């Protein structure tokens, strides 16, 4: 059984990661062909950085990802704080269920519903499809992930620490910034990075709420696939894989540091 389980595991890994490995390998192929590999070269990476449209889409994606994840992190952190302070388990359960809806919905449902909402809003406001609509949409689907990252940190926290801080003269605001915020900082950072990653590679929702004036990197790649795909797109996708991999490693590192901090605080108490 162990051998069969290992074989099954390697087959799954091969199906998942072999296309990504092929993409990365051929992004260094100077010949620009999938039929044969001539020489290892960074030529297509250099071509990518000469493409002003790709660089503009990259800049738009980074601005949107940072802005939406930062906004979602602030709102999600205070939402998690409110849920932690809420006494009614019934209301808390309802809010938790409603919060998880954007995660459970298919992306296409969320994208279409956001598009219809913005179309209805255009009749009474000056909002147009573009950066603002994409920022609101990305913040919306990032929020549940931030709350899920931060809320467990509040639950793991020793309540005696906050009670002791209040007894020693801290106001609730001082107690939050001096006791709770440092403790949940790893959850906040994890939520921000998850939101950044989701926003950076989102295509479906962005497709419904975007405009030609503000194009993100996934939309740019999709438009390229409608024609003959340039090998600089292979380099672009490889760079996105490396960035997302680095962010995931950072999230795991912060999570392990949060566990170590929790153990140290228990030892102090």
Q: Could you explain how this protein is built, in words?
A:
This protein is mainly alpha-helical and 269 residues long. The chain has a single domain (41-268), classed as Orthogonal Bundle (MetI-like fold). It is 80% helix and 0% strand. The protein has helices spanning 2-26, 43-50, 52-85, 89-99, 101-104, 107-122, 131-156, 159-167, 172-200, 204-209, 217-225, 231-268. α9 (172-200) runs antiparallel to α12 (231-268). The longest helix has 38 residues, at 231-268.
> What's the total number of strands?
0
CATH fold title: MetI-like fold
What does the main sheet amount to? none
Shape: globular
Series of secondary-structure elements, N-terminal to C-terminal: HHHHHHHHHHHH
Helix percentage range: over 70%
Number of domains: 1
Q: What CATH first level would be assigned?
A: Mainly Alpha
How large is the radius of gyration?
23 Å
Q: Uncertain runs with pLDDT below 50, 5 residues or more?
A: none
| CATH level-four homologous superfamily name | MetI-like
CATH architecture: Orthogonal Bundle
Strand content: under 5%
Report the mean per-residue pLDDT as an integer.
Answer: 83
Number of helix segments? 12
- Distance, first to last CA: 46 Å
Decide which structural class fits the backbone: mainly alpha
Helices and strands, with pairings:
Layout: H1 2-26, H2 43-50, H3 52-85, H4 89-99, H5 101-104, H6 107-122, H7 131-156, H8 159-167, H9 172-200, H10 204-209, H11 217-225, H12 231-268
Helix pairs in contact: 1-12, 2-12, 3-7, 3-9, 3-11, 7-9, 8-9, 9-12
């Amino acid at each position: 059984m162990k051998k069969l389980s290992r074989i099954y595991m390697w087959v799954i890994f091969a199906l998942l990661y072999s296309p990504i490995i092929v993409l990365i390998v051929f992004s260094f192929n100077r010949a620009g062909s999938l039929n044969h590999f001539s020489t290892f070269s960074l030529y297509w990476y250099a071509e990518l950085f000469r493409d002003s449209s790709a660089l503009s889409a990259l800049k738009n994606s980074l601005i949107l990802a940072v802005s939406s994840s930062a906004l979602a992190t602030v709102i999600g952190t205070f939402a998690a704080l409110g849920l932690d302070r809420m006494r009614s388990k019934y209301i808390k359960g309802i809010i938790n269920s409603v919060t998880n809806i954007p995660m459970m919905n298919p992306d296409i449902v969320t994208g279409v519903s956001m598009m219809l909402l913005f179309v209805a809003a255009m009749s009474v406001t000056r909002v147009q499809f573009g950066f603002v609509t994409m920022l609101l949409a990305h913040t919306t689907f990032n929020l549940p992930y931030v709350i899920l990252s931060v809320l467990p940190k509040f639950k793991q926290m020793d309540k005696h620490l906050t009670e002791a801080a209040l007894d020693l003269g801290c106001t609730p605001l001082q107690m939050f910034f001096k006791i709770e915020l440092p403790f949940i900082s790893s959850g906040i950072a994890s939520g921000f990075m998850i939101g950044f990653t989701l926003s950076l590679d989102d295509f479906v929702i962005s497709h419904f709420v975007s405009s030609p004036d503000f194009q993100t990197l996934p939309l740019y790649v999709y438009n390229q696939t409608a024609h003959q795909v340039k090998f600089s797109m292979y380099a672009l996708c490889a760079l996105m894989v490396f960035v997302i991999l680095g962010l995931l490693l950072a999230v795991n590192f912060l999570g392990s540091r949060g566990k170590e901090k929790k153990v140290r605080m228990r030892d102090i108490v």
